[in-house]
């Protein structure tokens, strides 16, 4: 039965552009579905309550999934296994306490003037240009400047981050091939060499930045400091860029919502929550059951993989009225875009603030903002809702 259902549920070409009909179909069969529909065998969770339950359940562990046998991915494996994201229990708690302290809502708010100034400077450079690509010319440089500032990376050295981030994001996606893993491992080696050098500089000459804080706290091994910085580079870029560009794209496709936001700029807070729900930058995360667990009448066996489709949970009609409608005033909006439980995103306040400032600054400076064409491309990633580019007309 599952094999038949699985083949009936194969994703098609439209999935990359619009995964939501597929998610709906899967959820209507079972919000906790066992199969191989996205190629990997495991449990696919599309229901909101079920996703939240599993994310909060410590019996489901995060782990790296790079093949153990190969030495070709050594650099990637070494850095991933020291990342907070792939730690569990007491190790996770030790690292998380330190990182969480540095990314509180208050710490994010201190960066408000810096983010606003950076957004304005980027928009100054686009002034009079007529057209621009939001992804590469606004969202990415902005997120890059912010994460570079926090970590203490000189801003003129951050240009390699774009390719590094793109290579490493692909290595954690379902779609990855061996070639992607090999390339990702080379990139991991370059990025770790860069960060190692930064760590040595900060040891010799401490500054007011996170690299110095992580070293001087004395709670992390050197490899963990390294992996934490690498994780922040990746996490701080990709998803925030996607939130800003997905949000602007959604607004331009919904002129009434765009008009409402321009008329009532104070709606930006709930608008960003709705962008997080409607086009969740992280579409999927995974866990492994550490023991047999009963969820929704199913027994998930020890060692089985669980794929939590955050983008599907955020469109669950049992929790959200008219889930496929963009409503920038939606309230309440209990989306799971930042995950939940022990691994819930510690960068959420910063990401929200960056998106609020970026979108508002752009709408103020270019009130006639519109799409420069109807076609956009979504890279073939299952775990991330990303736009390859977003060409716009700035008027
Ligand atoms: C819109 C932007 C963002 C989204 C949608 C997002 C999403 C997420 C999600 C879903 C998780 C949990 C993954 C899981 O449970 O397996 C996570 C974890 C994490 N995020 Fe974010 N994130 C964003 C921005 C950021 C930023 C700006 C930073 C840092 C500056 C950051 C740092 C992290 C870290 C360090 C973790 C691992 C936490 C842990 O394992 O305890 N994220 N993020």
UniProtKB/TrEMBL annotation:
MF GO annotations: heme binding; iron ion binding; monooxygenase activity; oxidoreductase activity, acting on paired donors, with incorporation or reduction of molecular oxygen
State what protein this is by name. Answer: Cytochrome
Similarity comment text for this entry: Belongs to the cytochrome P450 family.
Q: Does the keyword Cytoplasm apply?
A: no
Instruction: Determine if Iron is one of this entry's keywords.
Output: yes
InterPro entries the record matches = Cyt_P450 (IPR001128), Cyt_P450_B (IPR002397), Cyt_P450_CS (IPR017972), Cyt_P450_sf (IPR036396)
Ordered alphabetically, the record's keywords are: Heme, Iron, Metal-binding, Monooxygenase, Oxidoreductase
Provide the transmembrane region boundaries: none
